[in-house]
Amino acid sequence: MKQLLYSKRLAPYLFILPFLVTLAVFWVVPLGRSFVMSTQEVLYGQATFIGLDNYTRLWQDRIFWQALFNSLRYMVLTLVLLIPIPLALAALINSGIGSARIKAFFKASMFVPALTSVVVAGIVFRLIFAESDTAIMNQVAEFFGFGPVRWLRGDVTGLVALLAIALWRWTGVNMMYFLAGMQAIPTEYYEAASIDGASRFRQFVHITVPNLRPTIVYVVTISVYGGLAMFLESFMLYAGNNSPNNQGLTVVGYLYRKGIEENDLGFASAVGVVLLVIVMTINISYLVASGTFKKEAA
Amino acid sequence: MTRLRTTVSMLAAALAVGALTACGGGQPSAPVKNADGSTTLNMWTFADVHAAYYEEMAEQWNEANPDKEIQLEVTVYPYEDMHNKLQLAVNSGEGLPDVVDIEVNKFANFVKGDNPPLLDLTEAAAPYKDDIVQAQLDLYSRDGKMYGYPTHVGAFTTFYNTEALEGAGIDYTTIKTWDDFQEAGVKYHEETGKAFGVASTGVMFLEPLITAQLGGQYIDAEGNVQVNSPEVVETLSMIKDMQDAGAVSTIPGGSPDSEEAYGAINNGDFAAIVYPAWYTSRFVDYMPDLAGKVAIAPAPAPEGAEVQTIGGGGTGTAIPVVSPNKDLAAEWLAFAKLSPEANVAVWEVLGFDPVNMAMWEDEAVTKNPENKFNKYFQTNLFDVLGEVKDGIGNFESFADPNWPTVDDTFRTVTLNEIYENDVPVQEALDQTQADLQNQLGQ
Questions:
Q1: Which of A101, A135, A198, B429 is close enough to A202 for a disulfide, judged by CB 3.0 to 4.6 Å?
Q2: Mean of the pLDDT values across residues A288-295?
């Protein structure tokens, strides 16, 4: 026993054991079960093997493609909004402009949305984007001279509302990632550049952005996953999983509808497996393309 | 030192294992009694008003059965949340209540397969069965086993705001057919500029009613969807025509049974609501300004229709088969839902049309001038029900295992396409038929 506990060869494994056990119990096993279930028809206490039937149904399912399109569209647009804007804000905070106290307050207030619950935020946003002409967004619309908009009834206006939630919630978090990355860049680089006469903008493009690459790769990777796995925002905004014409339906929303609301867990597992494959394909190709897996050049 | 360290690491390992296994609690298998000899029954429901009714029935039960006292603990969840929570619980077999309300559009989900997770309640219903409307019992039965007890018939009626109609010179008692309804609606709309009836996108009630009156179904006898069958097309075309003519309009909130709609109806923005009889409770609870101004009348029907009305909506109350207290729960539930006492309470507390038809003729109950529903409405619900009593049809599609998917697709896509986006009826229904066939693997 004593020998076993003090063995140098075993110790490392012992230390990573807690991680491996949680990974196995909460990730690998459920994943394997999902694969198995995606080839079954699951009813109470009985599961029948049906081969790839769930996948053929999925392939022909218009609603699934619509959900996938919605998720992809949302993911791409969040990338377009949630990388440049927080990057610019972080650069602004990191620069010498403005008083430190105001910037600290700004940082804190940008971060607060990340601490609130999506459930509460979703309800508040639903009220902001309500149909009545007294709702906040319709008052804003009126101020700019166009009549009350039925925000959550139209496809594009509904998407605007979803992106507004994403922007409100994640700008601060991404800004913090970028800011942390920027503060790790040695100031010597900037000094040398300014001696050479480089403008602020050129310093940003040629020093800040290249040095931030690991942070940007990280933020893009989690944003791809976050965008494709979005569910709760839409669920809260539309007060449930049924939005008009499925305009707010995401892949995870469809999985939830099929598995939980309609009790077709086999089919829902197939949806989950397909989502996993898509997310992994996008992220692994991106990581390979950005050179993350390459060994650092010596 | 070494020993201590070994002990500590053993402890840590034990803790980790304990933490992992602690999740598997499970349900106790034997009945559990409280110290005072009563039994606690946990119940889930999705409507506040139901909770008040069940508590009343628990009190009556305890008075009559002091040896079998129960302590009812009702938890009210939002509609979707409760059904989703229940779905997860029955799949895992854990964390289930002893008694649960399941809405009719969701009921089919819980009786799928050969091994439904609900208790067969046929035996407990035996003492009361003969007085109950059979169609309502069938709604919650599969293969001859009864898995839930009904709450009401939910016969369709029309609620007219008579004050608003008089202003436009319309006499609601002359409205008998859908043509009359449309004519009155157009006239009302032209006189006042306001909406008359409702085309809902968020619930599907009016459509099954008209389809049933026309003699159609959404799902055929073999279980195949047929939502582009001639009767369904005719139904949607009729409502669409009424909408185009101005007789019906979409309503804020998507259906009359939503917070936004209560406000609009209370304001007098809608004058005629065709809805199941249980909508009485929504008027009394949420639309106080209309007290004394609303008359109940039969739902319009096509000329010479055999089926005048059907039961719309409903709640089947069921008992999960793993409940340790299932026998007592079944006994109480039969009393609480099917007994004559229960049916009086269904009317007096909830304002619903009870499933025990013998009660419909008990004038001491139905005509009680102190009853809050009788005080609110100009006409008596039971007079109206008496008129249509022989024309209550059984709409088989409601009991089909695939009805939840059909209902869901209509509420999410089809009704929106037709009433909001002006997609031609035939096109929208053909698309829905194709989607449903694929989704259901037919």
A1: A198
A2: 79
